[in-house]
Automatic annotation (TrEMBL):
Protein's name in the database: Uncharacterized protein
Organism listed in the record: Mycena alexandri
Domain of life: Eukaryota
Chain ranges passing through the membrane: 20-38, 50-72, 102-120, 127-148, 168-188, 208-232, 238-257
Keywords: Membrane, Transmembrane, Transmembrane helix
Length: 334
């Protein structure tokens, strides 16, 4: 039985409404993210994260603005023309729609890049592990912008489901999905494998584990829905696609904000929070490097990059294991 699809006017209206709601959440999350990073000090990895978060937030702002401009052009500017809104929204090559899709592709690529960077840090700067994912991100970027180029040259009556555009869009979404799922699983596995599962295991490690899994699942599940709707040639896919333009910014910032909430809860419980990247394995110290101290502690400049936040008591009982040497990590100190 064929699905009942939404009209083009309704799908565009719902897409803009969904985008505006998610953008409102992004405003709050970005403000909280800035507060968390500022509290930790804008040095080292924190500086990188605040730059990326700010860049993604501005792109999300442009994405939301493009959606709102389409509503104004469709329902206000062309509202008095017979079938004016439908004719306007049918034109996929309108500057506003092309800009919206370009903002979405850019934010999606940045979100994938941030995820690969986290993977690189968590796995002890293992470039060989991250190289395939970096290649996937590069391929996603190429496919995404080629799709935007095709979209910009559409005629006003060309549907978005044409093969010369659809193949590039499907490639973009599939590559991004593989990147998100693969990198998320590897990060989650590292947290799982380097955490002691004895009686004294810190509950903070499980919070970080589920935080990573849930964040990756949200983005991946939404991408799967978009893929399904596009293959079925449903206009409702525009709603999900517009939402992804905001979710791609929301997921990275939510990880930082949620770790900040864990820190606040730990402090309220009466223990001073020590911020440690607990999933990063120790390496031999290098004189003057400022990366890892003589005792295996991680410099505060690197704390927020996946950032497992543990209290003093939890840090003493963390019992993380060096997978390569079988040695326990040096205990974190406040």
């Amino acid at each position: 039985m064929q699905m009942h699809d939404t009209s083009l006017n309704m799908s565009t209206l719902m897409a803009s409404w969904t985008t505006s709601v998610l953008y409102g959440i992004n405003i709050v999350m970005y403000a909280c993210c800035v507060r968390v990073l500022y509290h930790r000090g804008l040095v080292g990895f924190n500086r990188v994260l605040i730059i990326m978060a700010t860049l993604q937030f501005f792109i999300s702002t442009g994405h939301n603005a493009a959606c709102l401009v389409q509503l104004i052009r469709g329902f206000i500017t062309n509202g008095d023309t017979p079938n004016g809104p439908f004719i306007y929204f049918l034109d996929m090559a309108s500057p506003e729609h092309v800009a919206q899709e370009a903002f979405y592709i850019t934010n999606s690529v940045l979100g994938d890049a941030i995820l690969i960077w986290r993977l690189y840090i968590v796995w002890n700067n293992n470039w060989w592990l991250c190289a395939p994912f970096a290649t996937l991100v590069a391929a996603t970027t190429i496919c995404g912008y080629v799709a935007i180029s095709h979209l910009a040259h559409f005629s006003p009556v060309d549907p978005v489901f044409l093969a010369n555009l659809g193949n590039w869009l499907l490639s973009t979404w599939c590559l991004s999905l593989v990147t998100q799922v693969g990198a998320t699983l590897l990060i989650a596995y590292k947290i799982w494998a380097t955490t002691s599962w004895g009686i004294n295991k810190s509950s903070s490690h499980m919070k970080v584990f589920w935080m990573v899994v849930e964040s990756g699942a949200v983005y991946s599940f939404t991408t799967v829905i978009l893929l399904s709707l596009y293959v079925a040639k449903e206009n409702a896919g525009a709603i999900v696609g517009a939402a992804l333009g905001q979710i791609s910014c929301l997921v990275p910032t939510s990880i930082i904000v949620r770790t900040g909430l864990v820190s606040a809860a730990t402090s309220t419980a009466g223990s001073f929070p020590s911020f440690r990247a607990a999933t990063r394995l120790p390496r031999k110290s290098s004189q003057g490097s400022g990366t890892i101290t003589q005792e295996g502690e991680i410099d505060s400049g690197q704390e927020i990059c996946l950032t497992d936040m543990v209290s003093d008591d939890e840090a003493k009982n963390a019992g993380l294991i060096d997978l390569e040497k079988g040695n326990s990590l040096s205990r974190a100190r406040a």
